[in-house]
Amino acid sequence: MIAIIDYDAGNIKSVEKALEYLGEKVIITRDKNELLKASGVILPGVGSFKDAMDNLNKYNLCEAIREVTDKKIPFLGICLGLQLIFEKSEESPGVEGLKLLEGEIVKIPEKDDIKIPHIGWNSLKFPNKGRLFKGIKEDSFVYFVHSYYLKAKDPSIVTAVTEYGANIQASVEKDNIFACQFHPEKSSETGLCILKNFIEITKENK
After folding, report:
1. Which of 16, 118, 146, 183 is catalytic?
2. What fold does the segment set 2-204 form as a domain?
């Protein structure tokens, strides 16, 4: 069973429906014991970095997430969920992220031909091999909604990139921690394949 972290963030239901479509049992919870019993844990999210961290702290979920990752339970951050697992964001100066991985979140540069937020489909390149992208061809399209993007300290953890006014680090992987800046649950067959790969990783971990 996969647990989706409930911290009053948007986009939880669409992730739940996509997983259920793939035949996976899902629980939406903020209970630490439920999270630690799950085969995999997902941190979805849309909204602001500060509000999200405030809610994670309010529900005592920061420590629970660290316990989940310390126990090597497969963990997937989606969209804002990717940003939260890093150290800080230009969107919310002075607010600390979860610091599961090293790097910062910066604003997409403003250019005449670039609309911000970035909303739409972009193709992916794979600079490093990632287990989430098993069976997925390079240049496959996925769906993005964001104004900020990741600059990871260690480029070797970056498994997918796209171009949108900058080189956008679109996915990362390190040990049991995975994250996507795009929305796999809204990315048609490619996105379902990514979620299916995550489900398979959770089964391998048992």
Report:
1. 183
2. Rossmann fold (3.40.50)
